[in-house]
User: Fold this.
Amino acid sequence: MKSCLVVDDSKVIRKVARRILEELQFEIGEAVDGKDALDQCIAKMPDVVLLDWNMPVMNGLEFLVALRSQTGVKQPIVVFCTTENDMAHIRQAIEAGADEYIMKPFDREIIEAKFNQVGLL
Amino acid sequence: MRTEDFTFLAEALKQRSGLMLTADKVYLLESRLTPLARKRGLDTLDALIQKLRISRDEALWKDVTEAMTTNESFFFRDTTPFDLFRNHVLPGMLKARAATKRLRIWCAAASTGQEPYSLAIILKENAAKLAGWNVEIVGTDICTQVLEKARAGTYSQFEVQRGLPIQMLIKYFRQDGDVWRINDDIRSMVSYRPFNLLQSFAGMGTFDVIYCRNVLIYFDQPTKRDVLDRMRRVLGNDGALFLGAAETVLGITDAFRPVRGQRGLYVPSDGTSEQLMGL
Ligand SMILES: [Mg+2]
Assistant:
């Protein structure tokens, strides 16, 4: 079973994402901000991170940069999942090392399509 | 819905578009025609059916046919038909058509354009190998409304997230308010025209590749055979035919045979496509 860390400051979003991803046979962890996510990744690297952008303490992009600078670890696939839906944000995320990008609102089909594209399904 | 109303609509639709509606598709009629009834200022689907029974309102019939034949579409839908095109069909054609440098592709159920544009994107990514080639993608659909959308090349945020890798969104689309607009160099690679598959294919010319996905399922057996046999006659002997995941030629026609292990790909039975495509 592949593991997915769902990082979002919204409890509702984490719950929706968890339900969809559990149906897709992922083992789910949750983090409430970038700092929380980074701590969890250092302790145990997941296979994939579903990542919100706007969060308190440490935002998604800051987390991604910190994650990608970690050496000697197996880097997870990172899929952004955010309300930021303009080309500038998308480019910035991909340049920082995101593998895919989901613009909210999302549904099961979109998650499935995107996870498929990065070879997770 | 009353049985006689269902029968009336089903028979009329079959005659006009080849669409086969089995009794389990009542929900489809109701869900697609009720909004149309309201749009036409009618209170109920019953009122719409009564109107269809007594009048020969061709415009109304056209709307009904279009509402019933519209298919949902995604970019790179089902993945495999596009991987096969990229990795086998296109390399084969690059060899086979090296002298004429001409490639013609027909998307016979183009709907809102995602399929032809997905192919256009693949061709664009192989532009270096196709320098000096004359490549044509023809997108046809019975529904003129979906073709308008296809021609416009604009898609909602939802639509560009179904099947389209983010790198391709960045590369081939630009944001225009609420919609995503496909770049003109991709858009101009496809020409669209309304076309009913029950019509003669004379005037379509010949093709190297045909995509006809998720439309035969709506036809009865003789219509399926007729369409496939006529497609064989406009397809090169070394060409390729893609059908939908739930469709097949088996038990319908001997004009094509499936390529073993390659779901959705069919080749002329008497042809040479497999060697060419390395399958
Ligand atoms: Mg947030």
